[in-house]
Amino acid sequence: MSQITEGLGYDVIFETSGNIAMLSLATRLLARHGSLLFSSIYGINTNLPISISELYLKEASLIPYYMAPYILPRIKSIMSKLELKPLITKVYDFKDAIMAYKDTETGLYPHVLVKVSD
Description:
Radius of gyration: 19 Å
Strand content: 15-25%
Largest sheet: 3 strands, parallel
Low-confidence stretches: none
Oligomer: single chain
Shape: extended
């Protein structure tokens, strides 16, 4: 995390594993003012390993959401009907990373991907 976020943590974390240990880890990885969304109850009478004081000091949000088992096939059927543009508009090799940055600055390609390896 420290390399990716420079030690600041992640703004949004979706914890969907159902593993209670991951919920505790996600809390520690959360940035100040971040949001931790979770979609499991981790057991009806389970004490969650979440430090409320840690969330309070980070001014973070803990947001539960319910994802019914039937929702994914419905999402898939809706997505196929939408006319969506690709999020990544240009792919560059690592050796062309400087050009990728320059193209992003000009707005020519708003979302680029730099391939690090094949």
